[in-house]
Amino acid sequence: MKKIHTHHFALLLLLILSTTNRFQTLKNHSLNHYHSIADSIIRSSLVEKKGYRWLKELCEIGPRLSGSNQSLEAIEWAKSKMIVSEFDSVWLQPVMVPKWVRNDIESAHISKSNNYQGKLLSIASLGGSIGTPINGLTGKVVEVKSFDELANIANNVKGKIVFFNRPYDDGLVNTFEAYGKAVNQRTNGAIEAAKYGAIGSIMRSVSSQKDNIPHTGVMYYDSTISKIPHASIGIYDADFLSRAISEEPNLEITLNMNCENLSDVLSYNVIGEIKGTIFPDEVIVIGGHFDSWDKGCGAHDDGAPCIQTMEVIELFKRLNIKLKRTIRCVLFINEENGLRGGIEYGKYAAFSKEKHYAAIEADRGAFTPRGFNATADKEFISEMQSWLPVLNKAHIDWIRPGGSGGDVAQIKNAKAWFGFVPDDQRYMDVHHSDNDTFESVHPREMQLGTAAMAIMVYLLSEE
Amino acid sequence: MKKIHTHHFALLLLLILSTTNRFQTLKNHSLNHYHSIADSIIRSSLVEKKGYRWLKELCEIGPRLSGSNQSLEAIEWAKSKMIVSEFDSVWLQPVMVPKWVRNDIESAHISKSNNYQGKLLSIASLGGSIGTPINGLTGKVVEVKSFDELANIANNVKGKIVFFNRPYDDGLVNTFEAYGKAVNQRTNGAIEAAKYGAIGSIMRSVSSQKDNIPHTGVMYYDSTISKIPHASIGIYDADFLSRAISEEPNLEITLNMNCENLSDVLSYNVIGEIKGTIFPDEVIVIGGHFDSWDKGCGAHDDGAPCIQTMEVIELFKRLNIKLKRTIRCVLFINEENGLRGGIEYGKYAAFSKEKHYAAIEADRGAFTPRGFNATADKEFISEMQSWLPVLNKAHIDWIRPGGSGGDVAQIKNAKAWFGFVPDDQRYMDVHHSDNDTFESVHPREMQLGTAAMAIMVYLLSEE
Questions:
Q1: Do A173 and B393 touch (CB under 8 A)?
Q2: Is the N or C terminus of chain A more exposed, i.e. has fewer CB atoms within 10 Å?
Q3: How far apart are CA B163 and CA B147, in angstroms?
Q4: Residues of B with CB below 8 A from A208's CB?
Q5: Is A335 assigned a catalytic role?
Q6: What pLDDT is attached to residue B16?
Q7: Which A residues, 41 through 60, put their C-beta within 8 Å of a C-beta on chain B?
Q8: Which pLDDT score is estimated for B49?
């Protein structure tokens, strides 16, 4: 008995000591180890700038609107980059996507005026809009700032072109909030205008940049209300038109647009992964949307962020860093005008035997890193926040509860969802416009973001 | 006794209650009040963009090297802006400053080579350098990466031009750290080269930008060692020259520079303030250095930050916000090549009857705000950190102990020193070069920084 007792006591002591020791070792080991992993990732990302060079190649293909030839070329390009980078598996997930085409005519001019006859206006057809009749659409212009204001002048809209001119609020710090407060003019303007008999509608570009470049984006119709053409107008021309119609209320403009909606076509999500060494069936998804609007080259939205998530995996390969969980890059197609890629991957995730441990979305541009939004239980978020001293090396200053991204949110059975949050001050200058070019991306800002996401993925894999 | 006891007890209770209440009220009142003040400041700064428009005017004057006519014109401009903005007091503090002039000749070419004869090299004379003889300075080139390497080849330096070619380390996140690790080639290169008998020296520009623009900056001589001309070279040409001399070790280059050091001249710190309503003798200094290098227009370094600190006061006037303490904007002259303005103001502060409560320096560009460095006792820093929820509205994510700025550090008797820290990723692209133009400053990033400093000043005034 005595012997057994001693034996038990010794065992217990050993257990306590070993647990304490393991914990202690893990914590001590971890900190140095993780700091050193973070340092390697950051240095390699900033020095090699592989993602930035990939972005140049991607931008040379052109913009990547769902269903376009360029989007298919870009999909092949991404797949081949993943293969060349020796990802463990690379595949395409088929997705049927809507196909809207801008075509070659989008113009507007003042067609009846004492003072401004013939003046051109800088416009862009909005994604999903029907075209005008072949000889254009001509009408008087009625300006409003809101749908309420439009309802108040309902009797004065019939046969006219509604001009939604509520400005982007530059007084808000959060540029996504400012965008959100202006964008219903684009998404729902044609529906609201047509309700009262308008023949067409235009809307002030949602932009923080002082220039005359029109910004495009998705717009909707309501199946119960007649479809009318809907376009955005550059903000200088919006200001001009507002003045002109206050001087000459009977002024008329003519819109010419030959954009059209075609049948759905086949496209793909691009998927590539490296297998986890300990938990290969636990997947961390990282990705963005690979489609873009057909202005500029979709560099910030969302080409560079997609490439950042591709380079995260390439960085682990490059540095020979092994991860416990499987890391999967998913480039979702069709976020801009359908979310079909996200939904399709979500369906796959729902029925897959794999466990989706976490998913990180990058869809806020490739500016200098600031933080991560997180949707997960409180303990998971606290645990990740305890890693901020490591993440901080790549300028990640916070992890905040709430939000992630539209595509990864379709993975309903994940344990945690994250959204990478770079600085937002310059994003709405370029968003959905000809300004969104390779040149608007800063190499260090982009590469530091790549490093931030790689460190986050590494820590998630170790958790 | 009983009565007295009850009375005492009641008094004590009252005291406890009133203290608790006051504290509670202050805290409750404060939070709403301060959030609302912060919101007004941010909105006004972002919407009005007065500082950004001021920056355009300042940049049109040109760069502001100490002692130059343009620097004096800019000083008059700043003074008149403060007067027009109805600061309570505006004055100039005289400061004698060094005067170095670049003059009209700075060029280099390959003057003896089989393959590269006559090729021009992009150089900039460094601030403080002597010129070359009128017919130029010609010599073979010896390349080193460090002063140690130079010492090792001491016997091979005499009569030659030393080429310091240690690159800026793009693998470091902190661009100021990378700058610090490369800049001794500029500051001390001529001294080290002359020690071993070199006739001239050139150094690889300290730059994170991939272009061929030379970056200037201050360099020193040692009175015991002979003075030789010292210039920076664009990084493309640095790479070219390195290759060329490895192919042709006997290749020669010729430098032509007619820069010179003149006698000290009179200049000024520009000072403007609004008086505190409760503690007018307690001063919060806010400022930057108003001189710049003579390349570009010194927009980020340090024109925009100076203007941010001017606009902080103008914002309080514009919004009719009263401050308990006196807020004084000091635009220090001659930080770049002498620190004379900071030292002169420090002397004034040492003997003034006023109490310098705190001082904030802005000298890291006008990029998106990130935090403040703070030098103060622990309690003061903790107290300021407790205000982060308010500061965070203007994207201030942290206040970290350590550092402030070279000019405000001359105010030896302050209670606390702060340095405004915007994001640093793009700073070394433009620093001390022709890239540092008005166009390199983003209006929202600049104006959000102004708001961040204004909120910080307001909170400091209330503490």
A1: yes
A2: N
A3: 11
A4: 444
A5: yes
A6: 45
A7: 42-44, 46-47
A8: 98
- Asked whether the beta carbons of residue B393 and residue A442 sit closer than 8 angstroms, the reply is no
> Domain B37-100+263-462 is in which class?
alpha beta
CA distance B205 to B235: 6
Name every chain B residue with its beta carbon within 8 A of the beta carbon of A395. Answer: 173, 370, 423
CATH no. for A34-100+263-462: 3.40.630.10
How many other C-beta atoms can be found within 10 angstroms of the C-beta atom of residue B413? Answer: 12
Residues of B in contact with A371 (CB under 8 A): 397
Q: Is the peptide bond before A39 cis (omega within 30 degrees of 0)?
A: no
CB neighbours of B99 closer than 8 A, spacing ≥ 6? B66, B67, B68, B261, B262, B263, B264, B265
Distance from CA of A8 to the nearest CA of B (A): 50
CA distance A65 to A432: 11
Give the distance from residue B424's alpha carbon to the nearest chain A alpha carbon, in angstroms: 9
Nearest CA in chain A to B44: A171
Question: Scanning the structure block, which residue is given the tokens 């007067």?
Answer: B83
3-class state of residue B191 by DSSP: helix
- Nearest CA distance, B359 vs chain A (angstrom): 25
Give the pLDDT confidence score for residue B28 in this predicted structure.
Answer: 52
> ω into residue A302 within 30 of 0, thus cis?
yes
Task: Categorize the per-residue pLDDT at A29 as very low, low, confident or very high, splitting at 50, 70 and 90.
Answer: low
Residue B370 and residue A397: Cβ atoms within 8 Å? Answer: yes
Q: Where in chain B is the domain with CATH 3.40.630.10?
A: 37-100+263-462
Residues of A in contact with B315 (CB under 8 A): none
What is residue B138's three-state secondary structure?
strand
Question: Is residue A394 less than 8 Å (CB to CB) from chain B?
Answer: yes
**Chain A residues touching residue B444 (CB < 8 angstroms):** 170, 175, 208, 425-426
Tell me the fold of A105-258. Glucose Oxidase; domain 1 (3.50.30)
Report the residue of chain B nearest A393, measured CA to CA: B173
* Contact between chains at A426 and B448 (C-beta distance less than 8 A): no
Q: What is the pLDDT of residues B369-405, one digit of tens each?
A: 999 999 999 999 999 999 999 999 999 999 999 999 9
Phi, psi of B213 (to 5 degrees): -75, 125
- CB contact at 8 A, B306 and B336: no
Write out the two tokens for B83.
């007067």
CATH class in words for B103-258: alpha beta
Q: Where do the CATH 3.50.30.30 domains begin and end in chain B?
A: 103-258
CB B259 within 8 A of CB B102: yes
Residue of B nearest to A371 (CA): B397
Task: Flag whether the pTM goes above 0.90.
Answer: yes
ipTM here: 0.93
Supply the DSSP string of A109-158, one letter for each residue: EEEE-SS-TT-EE-EEE-BT-----TT-EEEEEEEESSHHHHHHTGGG-T
pLDDT value of residue A28: 52
The ranges of chain A annotated as CATH 3.50.30.30 are: 105-258
Strand partners, A421: A371
Residues A106, A252, A311, A335: which is the catalytic one? A335
- Which residue among the candidates B311, B314, B335, B344 is catalytic per the annotation? B335
Distance from the first to the final alpha carbon of chain A: 42
Q: Which amino acid belongs to residue A217?
A: G
CA A67 – CA A64 distance, rounded (Å): 8
